[in-house]
Every structure is written in C-alpha cells, then in structure tokens.
C-alpha cells in the first residue's frame, strides 16, 4: 500500500491552518507530531462520556474509565510486543521514563559501577545518569561517534567492563537522524552482564519495534511524537527488573497497605504509577497506535525514507549548505543541516522559513554534546511525518533559497 498523503492530511485539521498567511508546512515532527481527528475526537469523547477516576471506583463510569485505560495498556503491549501488559508503565513522557529507571535502580548500584551512554544523546538521556552518578559515585562513560555521526562500536566494546551495569542509548538520534545499531549494542552489553535502556522517542513513529526480539531491558517513548497526546509516555521494562526496582514516586494508587510504620507496594505496573494518571491521555494513546497501524509502519517508513532521500538530494543541490550525517549507515525521519554563511546561525534561517509558514526546529535540539562534537552551535532540522509530501520539501528548499538571498 502506498501512502495517500492528501487523504491523510484531511484527517489533521491543523494542517489546513494558515501561519503568516501561508498554509502551514509542518516539518517539526521530531519535536511533536500533529494529531489526527481519531485522537482529537477520542480525547473529547472521554471527557464527554466516561470521565472519572480510575482503579478505585465502584461506580460504572470509574469502571469504564479503568477498563479503557487498561485496554490501552494492552494495545501498547501488543504494539511493541512486550510479554506482559504489566511490563508497560504509563509515564508522562520519555524524560520521566528515563528518570524513573535512574531512580528505580539507585539502590541496586554501588560506588564505582559504570554506566555507558553515547555522544549522540538527548539531554534527557544524559542528565538523569549524571545526577545518579553524582549521588552514587558512579562512572559515566561515553561512546564516541565518527565523522558521519555513527557510534564507534570498537570503542564501545572497549568501554564495556565487568563494572558496567547499564548502557543507555537512543534508537534514533533526534539531532542527526542517525539510526543506531541497537541490536549489536544490546547484545554486547548483555555479554558483558549489563542491562540496556533504549530511548525510543524518535524511533517509535518511524520503525517497527519488537522489545522481545531486540531483547531490550527498558524501552521508553512519548505519545506526542507518535500522533498522540502530550503528557503521556511509556516505559517498557522486563518484569524481573521492574520487580526489583524501587518505586519512583510515592502516593495513592501505588500501595498495597500503608501504616505509619511501613508501606507495602502494589503489584506491577501500579507500583510505578503513583497518583491520578493522565487518564484521558493514556486512553487516547491507543487511538494514535490505531492510526499508525491503519497505515502500517512499513508503509510509513517507506514514505518517510522517500521524503528523506528527496530532501537530501534537493538540499545537496544548494551551494554553501552542509548536511550532517549524510553518509551515516542508516537515517530515519529527519535531516539536519546548516547554511555556511558567515555571521548567521540556524535560528536566522528558521525565522525566515517561519515567515513562509514553514515550521522547522533550529538550535542544539537538546543535544549539546553532539553539537560540540561537530563544533557547531546548532543546526536546522526538518523532520518528517506520514502527512508530509515532496511538495513540502520543495517549499522548504525554496524557503532556504530565499533565506540565503536575504542573509548573504
Ligand atoms: N529523547 C529523544 C531522542 C528525544 O527526541 C526527546 C524529545 N525531543 C526526548 C528524549 C524527550 O522526550 P519528552 O520531552 O517527550 O520527554
């Protein structure tokens, strides 16, 4: 099946909106995707028909809301092929998922233990580990990248020791779009006796993910980057690890029994879901998965690869323009580049594009270490979703040409 972008676009009301008198060309999908009607309608429908609190009510609405939310957990389970539905923890996003794991493992780590991350990480997969390392006297090691933005696997192998307890890397880089060889990373980590957390924020809308096949110990992502609502995320964790981890936050819903002397915790997944969750969001996430499945991830990936290929080819034709990671082994979903014009930066270009109704992201993309690696303050990033077209890329290229004229 090929992707019918015209039909898909009709399902996204915001894409008909005007920005600065131009119909919006939305190429900031790595930051957050737009939402289709099926998601928007489900959100309002929830509040209109079954709004109530989950897991504690005897009344019908509460039971309905609980049922819907637990059904959504099962849909996520099947989407990433987790073994058990209670290995799916609702969070508020990728960032919270990573912090939850960092906090949950704290008691199990001791001074001198090592954690490996990469030079390609988003700050949310750096800072939680730094904070943990500072609290527990751990050693943080960094996998370097080569000139294409590919992780240097030989160096990674040398970083692994018997003290390595966790490796945390992203599946797809939000700054460069590089797809990391997580199969090998996971395999090598396991051989060394370490667990692996995969930050799937940028892979989940683009690539098929099977956590059992990957043998990932933790896999985290955000709903809002996959056509779903903000304030919702998923932490997948293997049962035996979630069992031994400490709860992240204390409160209602996550306990079995509370006395002033002692609290015992609820079973998985509730041990990690303190307080009233984002009920509407958790329920609606299911609709964004249904949207993706109705098109098929393979078809989506094929369409986005075509966009990436076309964008690379068109941007290459522009003089004084550098594309980063053009020759990386595999890329997905986005292209990162700069105009090589003295005394201009990426946001000057982003500002001009916005005047043409074109939304891109500029700057360091919350990934300052990889910017430093390439000795640049930031890039212009065009990131794709299933509703983008070749015409969007033509408009981007025209906009860049305009920007060039104005800035030269
Ligand atoms: N990791 C990566 C690779 C990301 O792209 C992002 C979002 N830009 C995050 C983590 C953080 O996601 P969130 O803000 O939804 O928690």
Mean pLDDT score: 97
The strand order across the widest sheet is 4-10-9-8-7-5-6
Q: Helical percent range?
A: 25-40%
Low-confidence stretches: none
Class per helix and strand makeup: alpha/beta
User: Which small molecules are bound?
Assistant: 4'-deoxy-4'-aminopyridoxal-5'-phosphate
| β-strand amount | 15-25%
CATH architecture of the largest domain: 3-Layer(aba) Sandwich
Ends distance: 44 Å
Number of helices: 14
Q: In total, how many domains does the architecture comprise?
A: 2
Radius of gyration: 22 Å
Please tally the β strands and state the result: 17
Regarding CATH, which class of the largest domain? Answer: Alpha Beta
Superfamily at the CATH H level of the largest domain? Answer: Type I PLP-dependent aspartate aminotransferase-like (Major domain)
Family: Belongs to the class-V pyridoxal-phosphate-dependent aminotransferase family. Csd subfamily.
Cofactor: pyridoxal 5'-phosphate
Catalytic activity: (sulfur carrier)-H + L-cysteine = (sulfur carrier)-SH + L-alanine
Organism: Apibacter muscae
């Amino acid at each position: 099946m090929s992707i019918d972008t015209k039909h898909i676009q009709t399902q996204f009301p915001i894409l008909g909106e005007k920005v600065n008198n131009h119909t919006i060309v939305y190429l900031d999908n790595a930051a957050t995707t737009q939402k289709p009607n099926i998601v928007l309608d489900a959100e309002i429908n929830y509040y209109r028909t079954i709004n109530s609190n989950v897991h504690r009510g005897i009344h019908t609405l509460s039971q309905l809301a609980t049922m819907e939310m637990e059904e959504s957990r099962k849909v996520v389970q099947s989407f990433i092929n987790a073994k058990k539905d209670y290995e799916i923890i609702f969070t508020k996003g990728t960032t919270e998922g990573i912090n939850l794991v960092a906090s949950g493992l704290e008691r199990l780590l001791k001074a001198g233990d090592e954690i490996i991350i990469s030079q390609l990480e988003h700050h949310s997969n750096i800072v939680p580990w730094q904070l943990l390392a500072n609290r527990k006297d751990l050693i943080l090691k960094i996998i370097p990248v080569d000139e294409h933005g590919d992780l240097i696997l030989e160096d990674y192998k040398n970083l692994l020791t018997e003290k390595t307890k966790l490796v945390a890397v992203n599946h797809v880089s939000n700054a460069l779009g590089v797809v990391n060889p997580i199969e090998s990373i996971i395999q090598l980590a396991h051989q060394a006796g370490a667990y692996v957390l995969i930050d799937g924020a940028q892979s989940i809308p683009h690539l098929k993910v099977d956590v059992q096949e990957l043998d990932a110990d933790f896999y985290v992502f955000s709903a809002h980057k996959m056509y779903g609502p903000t304030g919702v995320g998923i932490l997948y964790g293997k049962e035996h690890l979630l069992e031994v981890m400490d709860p992240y936050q204390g409160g209602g819903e996550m306990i079995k029994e509370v006395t002033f002397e002692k609290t015992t915790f609820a079973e998985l997944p509730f041990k990690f879901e303190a307080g009233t969750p984002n009920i509407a969001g958790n329920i609606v996430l299911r609709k964004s998965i249904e949207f993706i499945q109705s098109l098929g991830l393979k078809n989506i990936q094929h369409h986005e690869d075509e966009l990436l290929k076309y964008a690379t080819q068109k941007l290459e034709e522009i003089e004084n323009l550098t594309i980063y990671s053009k020759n990386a082994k595999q890329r997905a979903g986005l292209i990162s580049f700069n105009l090589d014009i003295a005394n201009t930066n990426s946001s000057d270009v982003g500002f001009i594009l916005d005047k043409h109704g074109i939304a891109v992201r500029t700057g360091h993309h919350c990934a300052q270490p990889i910017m430093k690696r390439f000795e640049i303050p930031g890039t212009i990033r065009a990131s794709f979703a299933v509703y983008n077209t070749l015409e969007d890329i033509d408009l981007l290229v025209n906009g860049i040409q305009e920007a060039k004229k104005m800035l030269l």
